[in-house]
Records
---
Amino acid sequence: MKVAFVGATHGMGRALARRLAERGDALFLLGRDAASMSLAALDLQARGAPGPVLHGPLDLGHPAGFPGALDAADAALGRFDTLVVTGGLYAPQEELAADAERLGALLDANFTGTALLCQQAAVRLAARGGGDICAFSSVAGDRARRSNYLYGASKAGLSAFLDGLDLAYRARRVRVLCVKPGFVRTGMTVGLPVPPFAGEPDDVARAVVRALDAGRHLIYAPAIWRLVMLVIRALPRPVLRRVQF
Amino acid sequence: MGRLIEPPRGADLPLEEIAGWGRQPVSRGRVLRPDDLALPDGGDPVLPRGLGRAYGDAAIPSAAGGLVIESTRADRIRSFDPASGRLHCEAGLSLAEILRLFVPRGWFPPVTPGTKFVTVGACVACDVHGKNHHRDGSFGNFVERIVLLTADGRLVECGPDRERELFLATVGGMGLTGLITEVTLRLRPVETPWIVQETEGVAGLDAMLDGLRRSAADWLYTVGWIDCLARGRHVGRGILMRGRHAGRVEVGERRPPRARALRVPFDAPGWLLSPLTVRTFNALYYRLHGAAGKRRLVPFDRFFYPLDAIHGWNRLYGRRGFLQYQCVLPRAAGPAPLAALLERLAAVGAASFLAVIKDCGSASDAYLSFPLEGTTLALDLPYRGPQTEALIHELNAVVVAERGRVYLAKDAMTRAVDFARMMPRLAEWQAVRDHWDPKRRFRSAQSVRLFGDPA
């Protein structure tokens, strides 16, 4: 595969990029932090990515830069055939609730930016015969909870978008995979109380690579979270009103 | 892309239970696991930690609730030169990961302890040794450069030829000179993932020591397993094991078997490792491997890391945990004090699953490095409270008298006064630490116990 990758520097993105590099996929990194991408590129090269691994600027909050970023990926990889977006923003509910600017930035990046980028990539890939798009949503988008509905809403929108994108473009050979990680121990979740069934980034990465190869449109990772969310989605509203989560 | 806000500072983190691999003693602390190693703002004491395989209190915070920086997520490779085997990586990279990535390319860690679940940073901080110590010395001998985040927040490079004193204090310095962020080391070229292994039953301590000496000339790796419960003329009875990396021709088309891992899912009941069960195990093990001159090819995992195949094997010792005791006695001491140690252990029936004996080569120049030319002995002691502590002080008395020393990566109990007698270069190490960390920002439960750091 020739992968344009947004978010390969940290957490689940780092683990997934490594898995792809180790099996010889070509990578082009996109993101905000050039220094961090340079270090990630060195790591991915040493792990087997056909080098050199290059990178270019992309900010999910600034859609004006997307065409240029995708052009750069095309130029570096000789036309990418896969777009992976693991990047996204997170902040605790209380802070988002109290700060309209932060909330706006989070909704922009997690929903608007990611959707616009994936849409543009889908058009590009369809025009040249197909490809894969993989974006990270979250189980938080499956059902609103009082403690996490702002972040959850951004991901609910993204999940719906990815679901539809797959329906719309699969006939044109563009496959869209929506990844819904449960609680995963990463830098994003440091300091949060760790629930049961918490996973490690590499568990998620392994599952995502399998799902990409199989052309699936949705996975929960770790897989147990499909069941967990089945239960949570089925909770009657009076119960949700009462529980503190 | 990350968070809109900074990750929480230490004070916001939840308290976690923290213990060494022996699960004795146990403390609580707040653990940072950053993707990029950095020191938190403010001058609070911190303790670097890797994968938690030190047995005792080396990676336990100096006071309950203390801040721990776990390096395991800072594990990027910076560069690898396939011509020379030079690997530049971040401190959290584990030997398991190095083996997974580089054995297929024909490279092996130059020195490995008995577990691969250990970070490169910890290999430096403990100056670990392995079955090739008689020939190659310890891990620090293969380190060309260390990048250290020192107490004042500076990134400092050190190595054998720059900031040499800081280097000698950091190798074997138990993470107390600063936060090791990057390491450059030389890997060893190998042709295959296989080890040519020979085992030989030996009847007693003299035969074991003689066997180790005889094998040292021709074998890269040597080690002995001793049945600790054997007494009298059987003291030191055990199995001598030697190995070397197999060449391509010897291996042929053979493919390594897929590693299977077992897991110990809960704490074993206290009786499991009773003298009777251990005696039986040791006797069976002796019979199994004792047949003379057995030579075969084994995968490197089975040769170096038999216990890694059982995740959480430390739980076999039950909830009270265990202590590991490892000492080295100089060659000049002769076999008599070794026999005395073994006799003493057998007499108190301090059941030991694992008693490992190994001859060491030349000592390193690093101030607190453990190995010295002589013989090292390592064994597990189930923790039974004060009587176990008393036993350790008793063993230490023998070690001090013979000018030997104990290994800090294993230690949980040694008294400061005994340790000072064991380490002739302790003052030099303290001087370097006074220079780089006068306020003792880097400290551990062990450094409080042994070096008088504030708790």
Note: The longest strand of chain B covers residues 194-202.
---
Amino acid sequence: MRIEAHTLARMLSRRRGMELGFKALAVTTLAIALGSLALLLLDAIADGAGRLSWQFLTSFPSRKPEEAGILSALVGTVCLILLTAVFAFPIGVGAAIYLEEYAGKSWFSRVVEVNISNLAGVPSIIYGLLGLELFVRALGFDRSLLSGALTMALLVLPIIIISSREALRTVPRSIREASFALGADRWQTIWHQVLPLALPGILTGSILAFSRAIGEAAPLITIGALTYVAFLPDGLFAPFTALPIQIFNWVSRPQAGFHANAAAAILVLLAVLLLMNALAVFLRQRYQKRLNL
Amino acid sequence: MTATTLHHLTRGRYRERAAHVLLFFCGTLSILTTLGIVAVLLFETLAFFREVPLFDFLTDTQWTPLFADKHFGILPLVAGTALTAGIAVCVATPIGLVSALYLSEYATDRVRHLVKPVLEVLAGVPTVVYGYFALLFITPLLQTVIPSLSGFNALSPGIVIGVMIIPMVSSLSEDAMYAVPQSLREGAYALGSSKLQVAVKVVVPAAFSGIAASLLLGVSRAIGETMILAIAAGQQPRLTLNPTVPIETMTAYIVQVSLGDTPTGTIEYRTIFAVGMMLFLGTLALNLVSQWIKQRFREQVG
Amino acid sequence: MGLRHGTTWALGLSILTAAAPAWSAALIKIDGSSTVYPITEAVAEEFAKAQPKVRVTVGISGTGGGFKKFCNGETDISDASRPIKMSEVQQCDAKKIGYVEVPVAYDGIAVVVNPKNDWVTGMTVRELKKLWEPAAQGKITRWSQLRAGWPNKEIHLFGAGVDSGTYDYFTDAIVGTEHASRGDYTASEDDNVLIQGIATDPLALGFFGVAYYEANKGRLTLVGIDDENSKNGDGPILPTFETVKNGTYQPLARPIFIYVNSKALDRPEVADFVKFYLTEGKPLVREVGYISLPDPVYELAMRRIDTRIVGSVFGGKGSQIGVTLESLLAAESK
């Protein structure tokens, strides 16, 4: 079949046009996605930057927007995440160690694996329902810091397990085999050889998991974290509030003054998240350099 | 063998045993969590169905469990959830797929290393922040274009949820496209195809199951979303496909009742578990189908 | 390396123990009506300045929700925008909870629309009943169905949820039967949700305590209510300080209360708080947007607290439309 020169030229230029068109489309869509993020940040900064002050960080909530602050929410968030870490970190890493080092490829470990990836996809509010029935009601912990931390620990456990397993997998087999050859048992090998090498990855994954947990409000609302808490939690069984809940409460109020407060609290929350993510990246880089992995 | 060595060895055996048992329990905790979730939901849902017939629950078109004239039809809440998730998918699919295609087939390594992490940030923003954005920025913005838009509606949170799941759709689809063997592309190039033709006619069909799996996961995420809807969508359960009026989703209903802290044992308390059960089953089904599609895809490309 | 684990544990536990000087810190738990909430919140805030060691938590589960917890012994004080009902009295009796009924303010339930609504100049009780009664569900959906001449556009309704005392009182006063209303509207115990909805929707109509209107004046339009009873004023009456106090804003004017667990009054912090409520709380009532009671009523209320008079002057019959507090309290003191 013979194609005329001008038909071929037309076909080629049409092809070029479509390529260009697609590139333009792609750039536009990426611009929409990234632009939305920029818009969101700019909106929060525009609304809330004016409210950021030492007074805002150290005051309790108030009915007057100008006097309200996030002290109880900020401290509540910090206490909550630390307590969550106390529960979730050892159990999560322990589970990962068990699955990677002890369980092998049995049907049991396969079931647990599938189960964990399903749990990672369960909506967070379902964890709230579990926490409500189990910790708040059945075990009688009531709407306390303890119930909140236990619920959040269950929520982040699958993520910690998955990321810790990945970290354990990066440790070469040769290290384990050398350790066994020298007469160490499995636990000694793990504790003295494998864990130290995998720790940067485990820490990074866990910090990222906790930074996700910090932004969660739905499970905490379900277990009953209150919104008017004008004091700092003084023990495991104290009522508490947290930054996302305070933001939710302020957004729901119609006065513009509270919207500014919500935006300022959002900036504080994003700053905390940024800090945690930066910490994770820093830890990973520092230990990778040290251990040459 | 000296006494000390024997002593160390015996201690080591106990320690090994203890470590094994302890770690075993850590490992099984995840199973216990799943059992816990199922047990809690099942217990309260069964108590719920002792008072409300399953048929009514699934077919009644009104959801007024707290009023004097009680109706327990879940359809209005399901409609609200489906409407917002549908809008979210309409936003995320084109943007996510085009981005994935561009990043996988066209972009240089440098662009990819720059753009991907920034896209991931979209997924890391807390949902209350998105809720704030939806209610106080997007809704007023949309109201200038659609004057009849209510302050609470399905359109605004739907769009924002869509933006939130873009990274999920984009990165999972891109993984699927990446897995397509280079030989397929090279064959097409050899036959004279343009880059666009290769991308659209070869890579996308080959990666189709992976892309479908990513879309299903995106839907599942949109269905399970709570805070954006609790803030911006409203609290009026109604069976409608109109995105400009207040609605209520399954997740927002659970939040609404929880804010009031209903006492145990009442029918209102049980409704949140019945709704939670529907939510759990729905997202579980989507996740399982998505995993099955990915599994089949892996076997196909092999 | 074991240090890492250790550090996490140590940090966590130390934060908790460091901040735990008084596990038995004085804590007053309050829950209930979202109508009364702004006053209680203001009082709690000012009280904290006077007695910083006492912690006060305030929830908004709604009047009904608050009573459920109160009669279960879970809270010390219950905010209520209507008097206690017979079923709740029975619940409290069953758990041997004695309660002191303390009126704190007058409230008018305001009916509001969006400022862009330019056709409503007033509504009659009859029109409101037609709009809100159970039979209206799914049927009365357009403004033109209420009054000829109003536009043929959808009505978007917002109102108190069923756990709200405002809901109980509104249905009793407007529909005639307590707890009877249509169910197809945006119902919330959180009045801020309602304000947000009405202020951003030109076709909206809703009701809540007048204090919330006062706090959001520029974004909402108040609707005068005409009860077609010339004895207390002709035509649509708007709820103001005067009209609520002198009883011309009918039928939507009512007293609001706090109920105090009589055993909790034995604790000095609770007694101080309630007394603070009735003394320093008076200007706060006005500041928040409610109508303070006449001084003699506050004195009668104070006497009830001091002498621990339990029970309700309303006899467990719940809200009574059009009865003044003075007459009831005076009748009791006889």
Note: The mean pLDDT of chain C is 83.
---
Amino acid sequence: MATTENSIAEILDANVNLFLFFSDILGRPVIAADGSPIGRLADLKVKLGEPFPRVSSLAVRKRRRKGLWELDWRQVQDLNSRAVGLKPDAELGFRPLEVKNDEILLRDELLDKQVVDTFGAKIERVNDVHLLIVKQDLRLVHIDFGIRGILRRLGWLRALDAATNWLFAYQIGEKMISWKYIQPLLSDLVRGSLKLNVTSRKIHEIHPSDLADIIEELDTLNRSSVFRALDLQTAAQTLEEVEDPKLQVALIESAPVDRASDILEEMAPDEATDLLADLPEEKARHLMRTMEKPSREVIEELLQFKEGTAGSLMTTDFFAVGMDQTIGEAIEEFRKTTYPLESVAYVYVTDKDGRLVGVSTLRHLVICERDIPLRKLMNPRLVSVTPEDDADTVKDLFKKYKFLAVPVVDEERRLAGIITLKDIMQERFEE
Amino acid sequence: MADNILNAEPVRKRTRWKGLLLFLAVAGPGIITSNVDNDAGGIATYSMAGAHFGTNLLWSLIPIMVALIIIQEMSARMGVVTGKGLSDLIRERFGVKITVSLLFALVLTNFGNVIAEFAGVASSLEIFHVPKYLSVPFAAAVVWLLVVKGNYRSVEKIFLWACVFYVTYIVAGFLAKPDWPAIGHTLIAPSFKLSSESLGMIIGLVGTTIAPWMQFYLQASVVEKNIALKDYRLSRLDVIVGSFVVTIVAGFIVLTCAATLFKAGIRVETAADAALALAPLAGKYCAALFAFGLLNASLFAASILPLSTAFVVCEGMGWEAGVNKKFSEAPQFYGLYSVLIFFGAAVILIPGIPLFPVMYISQVLNGLLLPVILIFMLLLINNKRLMGSYTGKRGYNIVSWTTVGVLVVLSVVYLGSLLGI
């Protein structure tokens, strides 16, 4: 966990001066050099890009003026929990507030909002923001998620600490996370895309299962913007992990057509087929037309099968070699397979007409002599199903033989696809 | 899986069925929220309206229904457009201080309501000679287990089935053999002879029909259903159907009591009173149906109120929440949920506790909180940054501001009358 301690260590050599909480200075009076009041501190603007980014300017609500006024942070002379003191002539630098896409407003876009904690892979709500004064700069270092943040803002923290100390010799712990693990989310419809915390652990480094959980928990707006921020492969894996078919449909519909069809191509063909079948017909047809030919043909074929049959469960991602090839050739071919196979449990062996004649495992390929032809190595005893077989029959086979995958063959015994244990388990969970 | 989506076969014929299926997939939040609204307190108020004023106040249910639709439509719209719950939006727009005070008030109010629901369970089963020391702990355990051991989909299904049991009131209404032509007449040409007493009753009807917790619950369950923006009109239909059904049920309660108790000049204060008084006048079946309806309504509301409260609080505070989480993942959620149920039930078990003041206090708290919540809702729904092009249209805004205005005035007057000012 990114605790306060280890981040402090990272900053120590930068001359630590003072930590302070955003809530302690928010709303404080802003005072000119001559002591005359100007307004109140309404917000702080941070320029993203560094691990612990700098506050670039402050937003002030001026007395008897509408809107927020921006002033460079360099114009601040003195900062304490009572007031923000400005340098002489600072008032000339005030201009209407403007926020670019690589800048973020702490109060407007961060405080009380939800963010993704890429370290813990979950969504948290920001209760306070922890800042650090280093030399002349104010830097954003931590986000406070804890109950202390809430109590501090309510003004109850000191009283409660005193009470718990007196009663139990105990103090509620801080719960803070370093900024480098934080990805801010959108707070309203007006802003189009996520402001990426470029130095953060990338959002697509989160495991697709966790990403799916995060996306399920987010609101509509952020779902599509987070989904848009993912690369094709992560997006495809995440989409496979999303459990609610309605949500899968909503996500794929939120993406532009080109990207949507690219994502579908990256997905396992059986998953992509299920998703396409849930889409409105018009949209599905449109997406399929945009897809590359090989993926499209596979999916078109899979779409023929009725729900509840072996055909609807199977994937066409499998590894098959001819029976007259040698093990060395088979291994070479396996190396050249660039797309990720859903299951590499078995290597299927076919005759020259593509009929399934035997099965072997990757382990056998690796440990045997390279010049033996596969016909000598393979196990010709095969259990297979046809695409029309009932899904329950397939389940029983898995139960009985404890297979990791079962081949699906057509009436001429040509290999059409395989059903993996994962597919069967998913089917069972959905029940 | 669809047969083959590439077959461009005409689908026109199927669209009506598809529309119905789609509606069933979206429906639920509105219907459930409205029906929970007919809880122990609601049934008591409708019974009193019928017993004390006959069918004279029946007409007032129609404007109340319209107000209910307008308010709930706002919740559903905010839920669909923002995908966030009401407490979430309040936290993001108005900060910690306002959120914490509002949630505190909501927890207090809903705790009062939970107690009132368990009082309903106790009194309805006492009619069937089940002592409260047996019925209330049992009901609390059932309600608690339902959520802790279930998942949202199954829980929602159970809730939808519970709505069906409100039919008992309609059956009871027919058993009471009301004077149908006279009822038709009062609906077409309602009498507006308003005494201060009947005005008080109307305000009571409004107060019990539109409660603060409903807005939170409705919006949260719309969000939970992941309803797409293009299906929003179905969500609105859900709200309209729900409000319509609830009004029909309320109407039947009023006319059951009007046809029997009002004619005999019997005054009642609670729903259980009404059920007891019905037996000699309308037959024991009618009374039993009435009591069973009360039990169903109380149990129903006793499961939803604590659930919704815990959910709303956790959402606003940023704690994990949801019936799909484990206890260790969402300790605050389950903690608050359990505390509300067990303490709510425990209060009823205090020997000799008078139930009427308990219900009364919960109504006062509801009345205090409602205007505040409604104003926050109006501020949020007209926020362009949140709602984009889905902020209210001008004409519609005038209607909703007026409705909220009237409701605020009525609930303040209601509060005044409850407090005896």
Note: Residues 1-13 of chain B have pLDDT under 50 and may be disordered.
---
Amino acid sequence: MLYLSVIVLIPLAAVAVKAFSGGLRSFWDAISNAVALQALAVTLGASLLVAAIGAVMGTIVAWVLVRDQFPGKWLVNALIDLPFALPTIVAGLTLLALYGPDSPFGIHLAYTRAAVLVALLFVTLPFVVRSVQPVLIELDRQVEEAAASLGASNATTFRRIVLPALGPAILSGAALAFARSVGEIGSLVLIVGKVQIASIVIFADIESNAAQAAAALSVVLLTLSLVVLLVLRRVGGRVAH
Amino acid sequence: MRIDVQAVTKSFGDFRALHDVTLVVPQGSLTALLGPSGSGKSTLLRIIAGLETPDSGSVLIAGNDVTAARVQERCIGFVFQHYAAFAHMSVCENIAFGLRIRKRPKAEVRERVDELLALVGLTKWAQQRPDQLSGGQRQRMALARALAVSPQVLLLDEPFGALDANVRTELRRWLRRLHDEQHVTTVLVTHDQEEAMDVADTIAVMNTAEIEQVGSPRDVYDRPATEFVMGFLGPVSRIDGRLVRPHDVTVSPLPRSDAIEAVVSRVVHLGFEVRIELELPGGEAARAQLTRAQADELGIEPEDIVYVKYPAAQVALTA
Amino acid sequence: MRISRRATLSLRALALLYLTLLLLLPLAVVFARTFEHGLAVAWTWMTTPAAISAFWLTVLVAVIAVPLNTIFGVGCALVLVRGRGRGRPLLDALLDLPFLVSPVMVGLSLILVYGEQGWFGKWFVSQGISIIYAVPGIVIATIFVSLPFVVREVAPVLIEVGDTQEQAAATLGASSWQTFWRVTLPSIRWGVAYGVVLTTARALGEIGAVLVVSSNVAGSTLTLPLLVYQRSSQIGAQSITSAYAAATELAVMSLVVLLAMTLLGPRRREAQ
């Protein structure tokens, strides 16, 4: 407990204190100026989009990994964890290489919001997949067979039987993806260019000694993540990641 | 070593598991704690072991008050229903565990383990892991492990509950033989009355936190102290306001004095035994149990009217 | 559900295409770009004094952070699963914080506490110890972000294994310590191993928080990720290749981690 406090709690408390150290007015100013608001909007928008896309694609990938069979599947399964294993800065660098000015494919996405999306999709890939996989594995196939015997088409069975069973896991994974996206910096710092992202703004604030503004913005980000996570967990029930 | 349980009471939150329970387990006996789920028998066993502490009352082993002693200090052997095998150790290492903890010399440990492996018939399996053994083998290993430290008492918590029926029967006979050789005071918890009667010298019948009767298998079967004990130990029929064993009921097609008239509703052939289901005056249902020979001799069919008697000497309880 | 062959193939193609674009291409690019100008050049970049000291600093930080978090993690898991205190749900919630907090916020929080103007900072400075802009800051930041992995991997295993083995050990006379060492720890070892791997991965790759708490002076407080950042922020083709070289080192380390994860993954829930 002591360890936890020293490492985690005290520093976080310090941020909270600093955020409000200039009073409520100052806190409000810090988060409602044009730069901050835009950054928050971009961050939120991107994170929500990433959570949504991640939920869909992640479920598809999980489905293929569980229900399909093909040579080398084990390798694909292992690679899902790559974003967990690879340092985010390396991810950012490669995205810069792929989609930046030197792109081998002539795609120039870097320094745009699209690049941010791709980076975040990379980083959050495992969350939904690993959340859905175990649930999909545990799913009782006989329930689906019963539905089929009663006349349900595949689409109906998926919509009414499989999806509700997977729902909590998908939501849980999406919530984690959202929370992660909101605070992500390593993969974005190289490709972000002029696009304003909350974590980059915070970083800039720290560098320019505007600690209070940085703290205020940080507190907002954390609160956002917490709220989304709590809501989605309440709705979906906890799934181990 | 004799066990004395005195006025033990234990509750878990609102649930009362044991209420003022007193029991003496004679030295060298094999006593069964018999009862349905929730009767408190496992709790009592765990209190004797020291895995639970009573809210009030005391436990004595070999005359020493161990109520305050931790489980490690009581020198007991405990066998769990689901074996509690140390999954990452071999059979040999499992059995040796208690001795290694006590820092016994290697040679001594080696010898004792070999002795026990032979005793439980697992010598060939010494280097295997528990997950490579069958359920019955795992339980024998667990027994060997418990016996390795020469405990004062051996406590078994539904040890055969997780096993197949025929393994169960085989193992409980084996346990009885082991007990006859080793003479360790043993307490066995079970909900299976056939098992208790097959194995134990003394049976303590428990029901909702209390002991209803303590006696030999014969005693509790033939002279049950309460309706519950009677019903738990064997089948019961209610005739004429009395509780009677179906196999004590005599059935005759001819009217007799003191006999009750009944209509046969069903005749069920169960191999060697035949069960006659009767409808008594007043609409009550009862059963009689006859051997096949008896039934054939009487030639009873459904709808027949018969005359039913039970031996007065075999007094059953008043319902 | 019996899905048509066509649908199966389409789904498979979609999933694999997505994964290739998202995962494989980036990885391929790292290696391609690193060795674009030949093995020798790449090697030179990997063996500059800055690169070597960055490598060792990264390793050092991991060597400190991982064991500390492992000991904490096992203890914490035991408290959460076998303990009886009332603060456990709170502890459980708090353990999620490092996952939720943005790395920059972590960096900021450490500056506020241990920096020159910080709550404890003043005391440290007076003792001549610098935390921020020095190695200790990096270590603390890394410990923060990689804190929960071991706990989160060990706790479910503890639950699944159950405590009957520990009860059995007690009946056989084992003390609490003996029970922990001989029975509990072996039964959770795969969970611990997997948690250690995850912790190590996180520690090696940390960039956001350390970006904030370290200075940019090469050699003193640059970890490998920081080196990648620094080199790629410089202008010039040479710089970018050097950045790739450092990135390759990290990529190789993470592939080793990935291998460990793949091997240990299936075993971690076994109650062995």
Note: Chain C has two domains: 1-34, 37-267.
